[in-house]
Amino acid sequence: MSDALEKAEAAAREAAVDTAAVQIALAAVELAKAAQAQAQAAPPQHQCEHQHKARRPAGEWIGIACAVCVGGVGVAFASLALAILGGTAAIVVLVLRGMWIDYRKGR
């Protein structure tokens, strides 16, 4: 009877170990299913809803820089032309003023 009891105890231990292993495996499968379902249901956190514009290529930036440089040179020449025009106008006004003064004095 002792031999049969030992065999029964060994079988019971083996069944208990197998049952625990099966329960752990089933719990792991359920956990994996839940994690997968949650990952599919929730959208990624760092995505925004608005549309991003495409970035400009390097060639376009170089073109913009060249246009700004040419525009700057144009503004510089326009400023120089206005300065020359202002100086010329001042000289003409002074000459006309001198002529007017001479005319009024009767020279």
Written description of the protein model:
The longest helix is centred in the last third of the chain and has 48 residues, at 58-105. The relative contact order is 0.03. The chain has two helices and no strands. The model has no long low-confidence stretch (mean pLDDT 82). By secondary structure, it is mainly α. It has two domains: 1-40; 72-107.
Top keywords for this entry?
single chain, mainly alpha, 2 domains, 2 helices, 82% helix
Indicate the structural class: mainly alpha
* Unreliable residue stretches: none
Helical content class: over 70%
Q: What's the alpha carbon Rg, rounded to whole Å? A: 48 Å
Succession of helices and strands: HH
User: How many strand units?
Assistant: 0
Main sheet characteristics: none
Secondary structure layout plus pairing:
Elements lengths: L1 H40 L16 H48 L2
In short:
With 107 residues, the chain is mainly alpha-helical.
